[in-house]
C-alpha cells in the first residue's frame, strides 16, 4: 500500500527569497534550514526548497496542489488576489485557485471539506512531465497507483494512491498555463519498499537504498523515495 507524500522538493535559485515567499503568503513554518535547503511544514508533508547543490536537485516548474479547509477558501482567495493574478477552476463541488511562486512553480490551493486546517494542511497532487505517457503509466501502475482520469486530448492521465494523486503529462500547458515538473524529487510512504523497487528494477534508471527505504529514478528522471 502507498500513502501520502512525506516530502516534495523544489529547486530554487535564491533560497532566502523562496523561503520568504512561502512564509509570507502561505504562512508555512520553517521546520529546519541549512545553507542550501529550507524545509517548510505543509501538514505532515515537508516542502523542501533546495538551492542547486546536489542530486536529486528538486523539481523545476512543478505544478502541485495543497489543501485548505473549505471554510477558509474564500478568505485565502481574497488575501492572495490582492497580490497575484489568480486563476480559479471548479471541480464538482470543490474550487481551486492557482498562482505562481518565485521560481515559476504553479501552486494550487484546493478547498476540502475534510481538511484538517487551519491553513494550508497537506499536498494532495503533484504533476510529472513525461516523454512517453504509456511507458510512465505502466511504471506508476506497477508501483501501486490506480488510474482515475484521462485527459480528453490523451496527453495526460491522473492516478491515485490513498488520498494522494499524481498526474502524468506529456509536454503541454495545463490549467493556469501550468507545466509538469521535471526532475521532481518526492518521498512517499509505502509498505514493502524493497519489494516494490524490485518489481520496477528493469524499468527504473536507478535503484539505491537510503535510510528508511529505497530510492528509484523513473524512466523520465524523476526521483521517488519509498519509505516504510
Can you put this structure into words, describing what you see?
This protein has 228 residues and is of the alpha+beta class. The protein has a single domain (2-227), classed as 2,3-Dihydroxybiphenyl 1,2-Dioxygenase, domain 1. It is 17% helix and 43% strand. The protein has four helices and 16 strands. It has helices at 15-26, 73-81, 133-143, 193-199; strands spanning 2-11, 30-33, 37-42, 45-50, 63-69, 87-91, 94-100, 106-112, 122-129, 146-150, 156-161, 164-169, 185-190, 206-210, 213-217, 223-227. It has an eight-stranded mixed sheet. An eight-stranded mixed sheet has the order 6-7-8-5-9-12-11-10, covered by helices on one side. A hairpin with a 2-residue loop joins β14 (206-210) and β15. The radius of gyration is 17 Å and the shape is globular. The mean pLDDT is 95.
Structural class: alpha+beta
The second-level CATH architecture is: Roll
Q: How are strands sequenced across the largest beta sheet?
A: 2-3-4-1-13-16-15-14
Please bin the fraction of helical residues.
Answer: 10-25%
CATH superfamily: 2,3-Dihydroxybiphenyl 1,2-Dioxygenase, domain 1
Mean pLDDT across all residues, rounded? 95
Task: Please give the CATH class.
Answer: Alpha Beta
> What kind of sheet is the major sheet?
8 strands, mixed
CATH topology: 2,3-Dihydroxybiphenyl 1,2-Dioxygenase, domain 1
- The radius of gyration over CA amounts to 17 Å
Number of helices: 4
Strand content: 35-45%
- Based on DSSP secondary structure assignment, what is the total number of beta strands? 16
Shape: globular
User: What separation lies between the terminal Cα atoms?
Assistant: 10 Å
Low-pLDDT regions = none
How many domains comprise the coordinates? Answer: 1
Helix/strand order, N-terminal first? EHEEEEHEEEEHEEEEHEEE
Amino acid at each position: 500500500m502507498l500513502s501520502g507524500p512525506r516530502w516534495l522538493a523544489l529547486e530554487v535559485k535564491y533560497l532566502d527569497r523562496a523561503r520568504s515567499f512561502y512564509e509570507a503568503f502561505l504562512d508555512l513554518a520553517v521546520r529546519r534550514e541549512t545553507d542550501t535547503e529550507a524545509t517548510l511544514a505543509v501538514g505532515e508533508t515537508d516542502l523542501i526548497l533546495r538551492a542547486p547543490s546536489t542530486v536529486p536537485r528538486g523539481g523545476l516548474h512543478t505544478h502541485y496542489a495543497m489543501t485548505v479547509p473549505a471554510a477558509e477558501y474564500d478568505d485565502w482567495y481574497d488575501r492572495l488576489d490582492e497580490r497575484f493574478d489568480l486563476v480559479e477552476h471548479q471541480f464538482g463541488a470543490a474550487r481551486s485557485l492557482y498562482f505562481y511562486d518565485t521560481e515559476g512553480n504553479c501552486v494550487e490551493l484546493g478547498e476540502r471539506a475534510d481538511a484538517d486546517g487551519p491553513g494550508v494542511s497537506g499536498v494532495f497532487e503533484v504533476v510529472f512531465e513525461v516523454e512517453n505517457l504509456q511507458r510512465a503509466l505502466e511504471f506508476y501502475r506497477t508501483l501501486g497507483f490506480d488510474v482515475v482520469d484521462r485527459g480528453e486530448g490523451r496527453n495526460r492521465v491522473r492516478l491515485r494512491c490513498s488520498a494522494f494523486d499524481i498526474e502524468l503529462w506529456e509536454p503541454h500547458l495545463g490549467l493556469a498555463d501550468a507545466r509538469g515538473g521535471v526532475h521532481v524529487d518526492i518521498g512517499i510512504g509505502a509498505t514493502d519498499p524493497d519489494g516494490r523497487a524490485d518489481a520496477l528494477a528493469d524499468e527504473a534508471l536507478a535503484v539505491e537504498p537510503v535510510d528508511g527505504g529505497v530510492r528509484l529514478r523513473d524512466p523520465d528522471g524523476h526521483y521517488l523515495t519509498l519509505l516504510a
